[in-house]
Amino acid sequence: MTAPVRVLVCDDQALIRTGFATIIDAQPDLEVVGECGDGRAAVDLAGRLSPDVVVMDVRMPVLDGIGATRLLAGAGVPDPVKVLVVTTFNLDEYVYEALRAGASGFLLKDAPPAQLLHGIRTVASGAALLAPEVTRQLVGRFAARIRPAGEIAETQLAPRELEVLRLIAEGLSNSEIAAALVISQETVKTYVSRILTKLDLRDRVQAVVYAYRRGLVT
Predict the structure, then answer these.
(1) Could you tell me which residues are beta bridge partners of residue 105?
(2) How far apart are CA 21 and CA 23, in angstroms?
(3) pTM of the model
(4) Does the first or last residue of the chain, that is N or C, have fewer Cβ atoms within 10 Å of its Cβ?
(5) Alpha carbon distance 34, 47 (integer Å)
(6) Buried residues in 94-120 as b, exposed as e (16+ CB within 10 A)
(7) Which chain regions cross the lipid bilayer (predicted)?
(8) Contact 75, 103 (CB under 8 A)
(9) Tens digit of pLDDT for each residue in 177-217?
(10) Is 179 helix (H, G, I), strand (E, B) or coil?
(11) Dihedrals φ, ψ of 99, to 5°?
């Protein structure tokens, strides 16, 4: 049998922490290995427990979720941990910073349990998870502030690859991109892989952030 996905839950609200842990532990393929209420404790516990996924709140005492994510999954971390950020709409700017810090995805705190479980499994598999219904509102709201000045330098991408990148940034899934461009999902996967390789990006989350930072979507 495949070992269950090991999950660390970090949230400063005990009720939410307990609720998440109860939902996760009820799944045969998932296992909560630890809980904590601040980012510093999350970093320490992750070092000791080696979880596969950290479910991370944003606003917490001692060290917030952004700082903790940067220490667990940021640039230069030799063995990054997959971080799934949970947030509310009014924390969208914080979540954008968390994605820049290395998070593998984000969910809303009011998402149904099935979405939380799907998110954990998706991130654990090495894929990135974006909530399509809030991607544009989340990142696009801050695009003007973060968009660099000067000419866009995406010349290494073929026209179709650039088109796929824009659709990724708009929150479309592989199947939706395939339908929009009238191509197969396997072809979309090939394009996505090429985009990530050419731009030296880790996953779809970084691709979304990159696209907004470069002004490729509005």
Answers:
(1) 84, 129
(2) 5
(3) 0.72
(4) N
(5) 12
(6) bbbbbbbbbbbbbbbbeeeeeebbebb
(7) none
(8) no
(9) 899 999 998 999 899 989 988 888 877 777 877 887 777 77
(10) helix
(11) -65, -40
